[in-house]
Structures
1.
Amino acid sequence: MTEEIEQVAQRYARFTALGAAVIAAVWHVGYDLTVTVTGWSSFRWPWLSVAAWLVYSAVFAVAVRSLLRDSRGPARIVEPALVTLALDIVVIAALHPGQLVGISDWAWGSVGWIGVMLVWGRPRWKAELVAFLAANAGIMAAAMALTGTVDRVSISKYLVVISGGVTMQLGYTWGCHMLRARAEDAVVLARRLAADDALRESAQRIHADRLRRYAAIRDVAEDLLQRLADGADPGDPRVRADCTAGALRLRRLITEREDVPDRLVSTLRERIEAAERRKVMVTAPPFGHYLPGLPDGVREDLLRAPVRALDGARSRARVTVSAMSTMVSVAVVADNDDLPISATPVREPSGVVVTYQRQGGEVWVNSIWQGP
Amino acid sequence: MGQQHLARPVTVALVEDHQVVVDGVRSWFGPPPSPVELAAQGPTIESVLGVEADVLLLDLNLNGTMVIDRVAELCQGGQRVIVFSEHEEPETVRAVLDAGASAFIGKGRATRESCVETILEVAADRPSVTPPMAQAIATDEGPHRPQLSDKERAALLFWFQSMSKASVAARMGIKERTVRQYIDRARVKYAAAGRPAPTKEKLLICAIQDGLIQPDEVTVYTSLAAQSPPDRG
């Protein structure tokens, strides 16, 4: 769902950008080229106008390439913008005097579309486009003033072309920007909804898991209470051990706080449960709620030896995890008589170091990873 | 100061809302004569306020409410507080130690011997480090954490994760007495690095008297000492 919405938003960005290019291309071929060819005699130097048309086309190609690549204008726009604005002057110079703002004076009505393409998708597009269009209008106003083209007809033409061009170019850019912004809002919203769904699903899974474990402990507790009601001796060491084991499991459930347990913690919990089903009394202080990200293979190497010690525990085990931002240490102390141990630290290829120690009928297995 | 307490039983006020735990603690202390005596007990902090006791043993979760934010207020009066809770996660332990608690006993692993030993050490203002405290101090990465040496940090972590201080000594290739020294020094440094509280001051003074740490190693202590004359001018 989120992917589909993201694709729609990307298409909006891409095709509105290409839309600007299509308008500029149609205008440049349909109008600029046509008036250059059909108005050949109105130019003093028609080849200069053709050259201007080709330069416009080159800048257009640069802008289109950038829009096709990432739906944004080029990284550097000052140089192409200045070249484009210079075309205003070149075309005026190519015309016979008296043709200013005439039908063959094509550049000043067209360059605005290049401006639109250059600023497309840039953070300061609004200010940059306004500056570009203002410069274009300013160049034409200055040319009219310098050549004395200030009759009512010329001023009217100027105002119509400038206001029409600016309205279309700014309007298209602003409209497309709004469209893209709404599409991006939809993506953000979709992502948030997807994250909420994931969190809800995870919370439901954890809740269901806890209910399952509560149910398992309740069965054990019921059985224990029944035995006591039937006359079991509370002083009997076995009854007391069962009571202690039940209390430890309950306490662990109460103090669990992780919303989404790390895989290392989940694996340890599974093995602790398995040990408890074998009547091993396991103490495990809360694992805390911070574990750093671990490189590939580290988690497995951290768990392997301690889990083996826990799996082979005869009657009791203690499981601990200590963590800092660049260190994780997993340890098991258990009455495991069969675990083969190494007298010297074992260094795994992942960087995990495992140490073993036997003392007073217990084995202490400790695996430590220290990050860079 | 600490030795005075050894002549008579250390008195304890217990704040605990579960009668079964109260009964358990009472049985741990045993009938008189015993080194530790339960002077008062109640299900709320208010129920034991005003009771003269060397140590206040405090359950953190009272009737479903965590009372971590009351620890500082209790310690400010100079009362020695030992937190007795199943909420052994490092963040909680650090919060209560920072608030001035003298020690933290985890309900999950506490035994009669360890509990009584901790109470006696705290009553004598000696550094006491239980396994949950060792873990919390060793893994503290907060901005005001003390500068622990590698050996002090390793001793704390191994003490939390191993079976005994003897096994820590074997692992580190040092004497058990040295292990205790590393752990105690870490505790003292931790007390010095945290916010000042009268209970921490007592611990620091005793640590300096015992030669566990030099006065110039404890910036908080020296600054407090510097403030003690009425006219600092």
2.
Amino acid sequence: MSATVAEPRAGGVAPPVRRRRAPAARSVALGAAGLLGFALLLEVVPRVGLVDRASLPPTSEILRALVDELGVPAFWTALGETMRAWALGLAIASVAAVLVGLVLGSVAGLRAATASTVEFLRPIPSVALIPLAVLLYGTDIRSTLLLVVYACFWQVLVQVVSGVADVDPVAADTARSYGLGPLARIRYVVWPTALPYVMTGLRLAAAVALVLAITVELITGAPGLGSEIALAQSGGAVALTYALVLVTGLIGVVVNLAFRAVERRALSWHPSVRGEVVT
Amino acid sequence: MRAGDALRRTLLVVALPAVLLTAWWVLSASSTNIYAPPLSQIVEQFRLVWLEGGRFTADVLPSLGRLAAGYALAVALGVGLGVALGSSRTARQVFEPLLELFRAVPAPVLIPVLILLTGIGTTQKVLVIASGCIWPVLLNTVEGVRATDGVLSDTCRSYGITGSARLRHLVLRSASPQIVTGMRQALSIAVILMVISEMFASDNGIGYAVLDFQRSFAIPEMWSGILLLGVLGVLLSLLFRVFEGRVLGWYAGLRRAQRDG
């Protein structure tokens, strides 16, 4: 299950315990040293000629290209296009997957009957649909959306279905005896149980959506960061290519951190999060 | 009763896919929409293009070769680095932010970068595949190695089991369920990157062929390529399940024994 990928974040949240302060500071310092060391390495390697400067410029040149690029309006337009496709695609896929997942998970026969189809459709590589998307929509945003929605839908759906299956039968029966209708049962019993699964699915899907949005732009030339990278590379703007790749990485980090924060807020009542704060 | 049960289960597995495929076949049979040709025509093209045409050796085999090379490279590097990072807290702290940043870079954008570094060719495509699917393996290995049972670890030390014997029998063994989880995720990423790497600056491979069909408006051929990729994805995930059953058979047995007390 995808939930088992626990990322190594030793000093992720510094809990308000005195003894923990020092290791957290140490962790930040060591991490900064790691980043700095890598930046230095990339500065030195091309300068001493280990790698051709034309294919790997020093860090300082990449950073300068990045700063220059930040002043170019076209960059912000491209960034906006990418993030728009990302947000729209993620939203459509999530809503659809949650609704379908709740239905599939709640009706026993339906879940068994659709399991094999889901298992078959899920491993189909989403990018196989790129030619189809181009054919149907050209370089329109709908092209990107088709791919993003397809890839994210399964990611969330599988999580929702296993979340719904995890509902405590005693709680479900109790709710039924108290006369809660189907909608109320979903609201008060199923949803709280499934929420941690949904959140994990959303976090994974957010990363997938970003990758897909940029990939489609890269290959089809739909406007956005991906096509900017392709343009920079084919136009020989080497430092700019690296700078834009760095930007995509930074966006990825921000998206990941943001979804982690949302997850912690939405699940502040849940033992997995409460336990994290106590210990 | 037994037989009825098995029949019911088979029916559950086959029913919906059969209904959907039949619906596709029937609904598309008289289709004149050039974007959605009849399924019969797609199947016919599938046979002509991939099985009888020269495409199997010209495109499918190179694709699979690069997939295998990139995947193997990623697993080897991921497990190796993962064991190193998992065993040292300081190393984890030094590399964590750097790895977070690298992991967040979408692997396909490395295609232009790798073209700059290694040119266009097999090396570049293999590296694209490897650079994308190393992350699940690496992160899961780190977690698996960190979670090595303390008592087992102490026992190994008391018995003087060190070096490669400790690595093989304790560390890798106890991390293997997580490593396999990472490898499963990496496999589907590898297929995706195989296709993408062939769609950008390439002259052979399944991804190239599919995009080429689309550009020349050979629609049924394009659909047959999409079908092939789907079948490939499903076959690989089935194959992996067999591999997982063999490698982790002991683990499934252990879990069962623990559950039954």
